[in-house]
């Protein structure tokens, strides 16, 4: 599959649309997700994205799904990357893993404040 930067899909003069998926909680859910991705492939989306769970709780599954969708379904995929609660080193490692899997498209988000906190407070140990 040829790599594509998602930004290039916009401004081409033709509409670009995508689908966003949440990582499933079960193996059956993963199977259902790939059936859905397969069915939607015929619509030729510009890309699909896979979200992160709250606090990065689905980070591993998000990385796995994005790489697998791109590899198996042949659809450009973008990973969400929630930065709150992650150290710079953890973010660096995640980005390196995405790059190694051929994923160049990442939507980096600060994320919501940690559970129980009303406000987001940046610390030197976390990405801001």
**What's the overall average pLDDT, rounded?**
84
Q: N- to C-terminal separation?
A: 34 Å
Elements, N to C (H/E): EHEHEHE
Structural class comes to alpha/beta
Report strand order across the widest sheet. Answer: 1-2-3-4
Give an overview of the whole structure.
The protein is an alpha/beta fold. It is built from three helices and four strands. The chain has a four-stranded parallel beta sheet. The chain is globular and about 45 Å long. The model has no long low-confidence stretch (mean pLDDT 84).
Features:
four-stranded parallel sheet; alpha/beta; 4 strands; 128 residues
Produce a short descriptive summary.
Helices cover 34% and strands 14% of the residues. It has helices at 27-41, 59-73, 88-100, and strands at 18-21, 47-50, 77-82, 106-109.
SSE inventory with pairings:
Blueprint: E1 18-21, H1 27-41, E2 47-50, H2 59-73, E3 77-82, H3 88-100, E4 106-109
Parallel strand pairs: 1-2, 2-3, 3-4
């Amino acid at each position: 599959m040829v790599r594509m930067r998602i930004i290039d899909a916009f401004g081409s003069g033709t509409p670009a649309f995508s689908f966003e998926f949440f990582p499933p909680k079960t193996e059956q859910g993963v199977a259902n997700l790939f059936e859905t991705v397969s069915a939607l492939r015929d619509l030729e989306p510009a890309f699909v994205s896979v979200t992160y769970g709250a606090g990065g709780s689905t980070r591993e599954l998000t990385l796995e799904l994005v790489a697998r969708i791109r590899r198996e379904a042949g659809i450009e995929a973008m990973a969400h990357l929630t930065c709150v609660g992650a150290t710079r080193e953890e973010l660096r490692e995640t980005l390196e893993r995405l790059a190694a899997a051929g994923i160049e498209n990442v939507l980096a988000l600060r994320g919501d404040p940690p559970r129980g906190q009303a406000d987001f407070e940046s610390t030197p140990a976390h990405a801001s």
